[in-house]
């Protein structure tokens, strides 16, 4: 039937003047070739107002006036007029041209259709392709293959969706069967509040899925992201970027091999070679696995996590490195912190503001001023009245050379009362937070290690909060400073600004200072508190059951061992050397020639010198290579200006 239609189209030849036998033979040969074409290769005229035979370049052509409709590969070609070369199986369509195939349509001024190749060369001042999802592609040059349902545009094009998001590039394609666009060379994307540029991208319209096939740069407000590959699902608001992924925000820089982000749920998963720099807090984090939650902000790091806190003091830069099996860094507005946590932090601040040693002195002075109790029938009061005044007078502070033994006139003072919170102006001010004040927390769990140029340490767990500006160490903590080792059941450090102001060794406190390979100065007490200025210790107090053992040199040779005991001790330090000690209550002092004391007698109970556990350098804590900031290069990266979208859509896309 189709072949009959084609032959009828040639009947107009009979009405023409006679032609040469040679020309007629060539024309008959062409007709036979057309007749032999497979059914799906034939271009058919479906309807038209009129058709006539015209000659051009020695060829007989059919001029069809319309509106006219042609059909090929289940594809309709609609136009105002067309010139149809039946022999070459081609069509030139002009005026309100449309190609309609299933739910994909093309519009233009002109189409040259090569049926043998199923190729529509679409040209014009404006070429438009509309898919099922109402995505609108505009360009000037597009080739559409009707058999494969694939269109290729070049020399610039842009796609606008119904939400006024757009994609543009120099070249690209559209696969109607797969519902997939591909964009190549200078690809620029605006998707919701995200602006991107890349080398190439595939966009599956039915899934709202972008797959980046080359390096991608993305901006959202003042944030920036870069990666070598990745994908973005607009419908689910999910991103996954991998291979050299990098994120920049006002206060943070983040690197990872793989970054997944779910915007709706507000969390990210980072994998491998992670580095997070928080410039606002001068802190870096490292790991091979991490989870980020945006509200409230929280980073939890796994797989060899570590952190670095960098600072500059008196022109000298230094960094504290920290690691644990799990590290967590998070923040909350003050208004969202439960009242019990706030109360506990306030109590710690108020307690830390106290001077326990001075409290003891004040108690002594108070006892001095108390009048002797009146006689009564109470035997206890009588005994107290008989107490010699001279015993009270002997209670005073002495230096390290004093051997005065104090009486037990202060034995009724309970050192635990020194832990009772008191109200300080400074501590009250510290807790005048506004509800929107951001409180930061750092937590390290299991196998915690630390290294800084002047201090190293380890413990089982660590907690820091800007609520009280205190770092607390639990689980057999050990600290080393030069030749000194500090141990206790727990430790607490007070930070003001970026400087350490106080260190508290709580319960079973023990300080060991190496004199040489054999001799160790030692202080043992219930609690020991160190005071710092510019991160350098200038004083420490030992509180409760104090035992002191130190060695005396003569002409650079250790000759004597001095052992002291008291209830409370205060030491003043200069240039990291003890200048003077003061003792209170129950003071005992013994001096022994060193050659008369065996080694086991030169150790206080609980002595445990452990240099083998000490982190030797920062690589024993964090062996990560620190990536340099990319802020300068990031700020120079140019955002897309969308020249093709401006050309083809302008105000329709919200662009001027």
What does this structure look like?
The chain has 656 residues and is mainly beta. Among the domains are: 2-244, Lipopolysaccharide (LPS) transport protein A like domain (lipopolysaccharide transport protein A fold); 358-421 and 476-619, no CATH class. Helices cover 12% and strands 52% of the residues. It has nine helices and 38 strands. The protein has a 38-stranded antiparallel beta sheet that branches. The longest helix has 15 residues, at 21-35. The chain is rod-shaped. The relative contact order is 0.07. Residues 1-28 and 376-425 have low confidence and may be disordered.
The stretches of 5 or more residues where confidence is low (pLDDT under 50) are 1-28, 376-425
Overall mean pLDDT stands at 83
Structural class: mainly beta
CATH homologous superfamily descriptor of the domain at 2-244: Lipopolysaccharide (LPS) transport protein A like domain
Radius of gyration: 43 Å
- Estimate the helix proportion, in percent: 10-25%
CATH class descriptor name of the domain at 2-244: Mainly Beta
- Overall 3D geometry? rod-shaped
CATH topology category name of the domain at 2-244: lipopolysaccharide transport protein A fold
Gist of the model:
This protein has 656 residues and is mostly beta strands. Among the domains are: 2-244, lipopolysaccharide transport protein A fold; 358-421 and 476-619, no CATH class. The chain is rod-shaped.
Pick out its properties:
52% strand, 656 residues, lipopolysaccharide transport protein A fold, 38-stranded antiparallel sheet, mainly beta
């Amino acid at each position: 039937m189709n072949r009959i239609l084609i032959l009828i189209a040639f009947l107009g030849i009979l009405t023409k003047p006679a032609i040469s036998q040679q020309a007629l033979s060539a024309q008959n040969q062409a007709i036979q070739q057309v007749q032999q074409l497979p059914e799906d290769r034939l271009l058919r005229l479906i309807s038209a107002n009129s058709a006539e035979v015209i000659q051009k370049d020695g060829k007989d052509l059919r001029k069809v006036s319309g509106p006219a409709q042609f059909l090929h590969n289940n594809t309709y070609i609609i136009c105002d007029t067309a010139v149809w070369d039946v022999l070459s199986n081609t069509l030139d369509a002009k005026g309100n041209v449309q190609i309609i195939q299933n739910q994909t349509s093309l519009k233009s001024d002109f189409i040259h259709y090569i049926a043998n190749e199923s190729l529509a060369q679409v040209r014009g001042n404006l070429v438009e392709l509309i898919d099922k999802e109402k995505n609108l592609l505009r360009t000037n040059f597009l080739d559409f293959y009707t058999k494969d349902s694939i269109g290729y545009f070049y020399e610039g094009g842009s796609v606008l969706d119904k939400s006024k998001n757009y994609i543009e590039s120099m070249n690209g394609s559209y696969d109607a069967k797969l519902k997939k666009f591909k964009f190549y060379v200078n690809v620029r994307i605006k998707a919701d509040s995200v602006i991107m540029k890349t080398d190439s991208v595939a966009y599956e319209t039915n899934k709202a899925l972008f797959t980046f096939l080359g390096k991608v740069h993305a901006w959202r407000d003042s944030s920036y992201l870069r990666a070598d590959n990745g994908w973005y699902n607009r419908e689910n608001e999910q991103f996954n970027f991998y291979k050299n992924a990098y994120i920049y925000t006002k206060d943070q820089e983040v690197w990872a091999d793989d970054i997944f982000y779910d915007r709706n749920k507000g969390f990210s998963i980072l994998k491998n070679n992670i580095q997070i720099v928080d410039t606002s807090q001068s802190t870096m984090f490292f790991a091979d696995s991490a989870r980020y939650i945006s509200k409230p902000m929280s980073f939890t790091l796994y797989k060899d996590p570590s952190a670095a806190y960098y600072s500059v003091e008196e022109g000298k830069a230094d960094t504290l490195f920290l690691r644990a099996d799990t590290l967590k860094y998070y923040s909350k507005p003050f208004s969202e912190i439960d009242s019990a946590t706030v109360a506990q932090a306030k109590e710690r601040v108020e307690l830390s503001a106290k001077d326990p040693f001075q409290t003891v002195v004040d108690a002594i002075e108070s006892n001095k001023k108390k009048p002797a109790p009146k006689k009564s029938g109470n035997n206890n009061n009588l005994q107290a009245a008989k107490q010699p005044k001279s015993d009270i007078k002997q209670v005073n502070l002495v230096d390290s050379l004093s051997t005065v033994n104090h009486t037990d006139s202060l034995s009724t003072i309970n050192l635990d009362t020194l832990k009772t919170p008191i109200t300080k102006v400074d501590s009250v001010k510290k807790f005048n937070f506004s509800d929107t004040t951001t409180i930061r927390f750092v937590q390290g769990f299991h196998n915690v290690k630390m290294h800084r140029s002047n201090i190293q340490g380890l413990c089982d767990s660590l907690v820091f909060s800007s609520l009280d500006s205190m770092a607390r160490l639990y689980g057999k903590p050990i600290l080393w400073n030069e030749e000194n080792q500090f141990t206790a059941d727990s430790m607490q450090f007070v930070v003001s600004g970026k400087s350490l102001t106080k260190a508290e060794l709580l319960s079973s406190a023990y300080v060991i200072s190496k004199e040489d390979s054999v001799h160790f100065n030692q202080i043992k007490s219930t609690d020991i508190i160190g005071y710092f200025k510019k991160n350098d210790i200038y004083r420490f107090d030992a509180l409760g059951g104090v035992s002191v053992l130190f060695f005396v040199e003569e002409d650079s040779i250790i000759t004597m061992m001095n052992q002291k005991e008291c209830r409370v001790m205060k030491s003043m330090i200069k240039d990291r050397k003890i200048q003077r000690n003061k003792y209170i209550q129950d003071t005992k002092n013994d001096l022994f020639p060193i050659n008369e004391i065996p080694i086991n007698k030169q150790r206080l109970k609980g002595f445990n010198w452990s240099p083998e556990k000490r982190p030797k350098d920062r690589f024993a804590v964090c062996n990560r290579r620190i990536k340099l900031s990319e802020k300068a290069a990031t700020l120079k990266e140019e955002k897309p200006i969308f020249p093709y979208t401006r050309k083809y859509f302008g105000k329709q896309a919200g662009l001027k």
